[in-house]
Amino acid sequence: MRRNTPLITLLAGAALGVVLLIASMLSTPSKAGTGYGAAATAPPASSAAAQTSPASATATPSQASPSATAPAVVTAPDKADYAGRVRGGGASLAISIHNGQAIAYVCNGSAIEAWYKGTAANGVLIMTGKNNAHLSAIYDFGKATGDLLAHNTDYRFTVAVVHKPSGLYQATALVRGATVKAGWIVLPNGIKVGSLESDANSTAPSATQAPDLNVATGTAQDGDVVLHAIPVSGVTGSGF
Amino acid sequence: MTTRQDALPPARASSGVAKLVVPCLIGALVALTLGIYGRLHSPTGIAINIAGFSSPGSVKSWLATGATVFAIIQVGSALVMYGKVPRVTAPSWIGGLHRWSGRIAFFLAVPVAIHCLYALGFQHYSTRVLIHSLAGCAFFGAFTIKMLILPRKGMPGWVLPVVGAVVFTLLVVLWFTSAFWFFSTFGIKR
Is B149 inside any structural domain? Predict the structure, then answer.
């Protein structure tokens, strides 16, 4: 009787898959217990480790375990806020990540702006918005790098982690039957960039410069309407 | 052993096609199982890591690229085995090359798939991701079908080339929607 080698190949592959799956399952809870806690309580240590070595991601697995089939290593945060200017400086971008969900806003303080929603997993961020807007990035404890499309314009970016009061703010209000939605990006140097969609529910909202945001009170005066802004923060979960 | 279906009695052609039913059902079941697991299991965002690469994304991209290279060897060796390459007669080792390139490609693809399923899941938030998710499930279903029909006798001659082409096409689609996207978005060296 001849051996059925294709079947053996298939079963060996399936066995490999099952072993890897079980290994992943076994490694995840232990890491979720210690790693997530460590990441949550001591993010400076992680970013400090990342800064000491240029190859930050390769350094992270080795500090946890040198083994090739090491337990899961957290190379990306669960909760983070990033903000900065896109390459070329033509617009600003803020990204907030909260437990796998992500919200981002790109804005030039005038007509070019887009909101994005998407998923953040495993250091990879994939987001989409209205009007074919999309954003792809990789992120770690220090920065997010990628490219985005807004108003049919491509931007590349590397934005760094920011902390309150820097980051993303949004306000929505019903004004004369239309939903007004404003977004502001507060950069670490204190500069605020904001745009306002006068009809946010339209499929292709048009935007103009947003009124100035008072970060301390969270309000902005748009004509006779007071907009109440809330921070969109992955760290606190606000706005998610 | 040889996997080629040389002696094919013409009268058995219809029953040969009938023999495809069970492998195709099993393959469909494999694809469905992967898809349903990927959809229902909540993605963890992490899985076991392989040391030496700059990120899980680059590990997967390089493994997928390796699988695709071996899959190209698959197509080339199959063409030689079927005598489709002019002025090239199949050397004795071509069968071994075909089998082992296929095995290596498959074993390189499995860890990538497990990582996808466990850490990321079946997703549809963009066209690229939807196509990748669908092709990923279909690939392992199609590969299962090919492995199940390989040892069977009395199959019509077109079956293996067609199934092989489907498996290869799905893998190339997978590579373009993942590794090619990854390298072109983030660069080869990170």
Answer: yes
Q: Distances from the Cα of A236 to the Cαs of A54, A101, A118, A239, in angstroms?
A: 29, 13, 18, 9
Q: Is residue B171 part of a domain?
A: yes
CA-nearest of A207, A2, A3, A177 to A111 is A207
Q: Evaluate whether B109 touches B67 at the Cβ level (below 8 Å).
A: yes
Can you give the pLDDT at residue A36? 35
Tell me which of A30-44, A152-166, B151-165 is least confident: A30-44
Range of the domain at B113: 28-40+55-183
- Is residue B106 domain-resident? yes
| The total number of structural domains that make up chain B | 1
Q: Where are the domains of chain A?
A: 1-41, 81-232
Place of tokens 């069977």: B152
DSSP code at position B4? -
Contact check, Cβ <8 Å, B46/A74:
yes
pLDDT in tens, A89-129: 678 999 999 998 999 999 988 888 999 999 998 889 999 99
Is the omega angle on the peptide bond into residue A165 within 30 degrees of 0, that is, cis? yes
| pLDDT range class, residue A2, cuts 50, 70, 90 | low
Nearest Cα neighbor of B35 from B110, B141, B109 is: B141
Task: Say which of B54, B111, B120 has its CB closest to residue A121.
Answer: B120
Q: How many Å lie between the alpha carbon of B113 and the closest alpha carbon of chain A?
A: 8
Nearest to A138 among B57, B117, B120 (CB): B57
Nearest CA in chain A to B1: A2
Interchain contact, B54 vs A24, CB within 8 Å = no
CB contacts under 8 A, A 39-58 vs B, are 55, 57-58
ipTM confidence: 0.81
